[in-house]
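Hey team,

Filing this mostly as a record. A colleague (T.K.) asked me to run one chain through the structure pipeline before their review meeting, and I want the input and output archived in the tracker in case anyone asks later how it was produced. No errors, nothing strange. Just documentation.

Input sequence:
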Amino acid sequence: MKRFISLLILLFCISFALTGCKGSKEASQAEKASADTKTEEEAETTKIEELSLTEKEVKSFIEAYPVFMKIAKEVNEEFKGLSDSKSLLKGIKAGKEYEEKVNRALKEYGFTMEGFIATYGKIMGTFFYMKSAEFREKTRENMKEMLKNPAIPEEQKKEIKENLEEMEEEEESDEIKVYKKNWEIVKKYQDKIEELTSGD
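Output structure:
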């Protein structure tokens, strides 16, 4: 997993360097203009849509993963040993070819490099949510028991109750509901996903 994340960071750096400050500035201005025209409800809807997974997306991710990793490892090897500014600049220029190669390779799976990485994030976010669900449930149960304990001061119980209410509200949030829906898809392919990413 750590290796995969390192490769992602490397590819992001290449992409950022190739895009340049001008592109970043234009993107920022476009995002600001878009945000100004969106209502809070529309922004939340967009966020939920961006978190949602489809079964087709997950299946495509599984198929594309080995292809992506093969190219990412090539990039990693290419950039090994680049330390001085001249060689690094040379490497960044060569990075454009890799970025195009990634996009060409992932196209048949319905991804760009950016889209693939976003899907990876959604899948891992879903895994994290589900694997932490039991811990969150135990935490809430412990807090409920503390509220019944006469030895705990009322002021402290008030804080516990407020925290408990916040946690329970969060469990009913749209974001959590999306992760639950995502899990219904991801769990079908859990073994395969873990097999693919276990060596990273």
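Quick notes for T.K.: The helical segments are 2-37, 40-51, 55-79, 85-107, 113-148, 154-171, 174-186, 190-197. The chain has one domain: 2-197.
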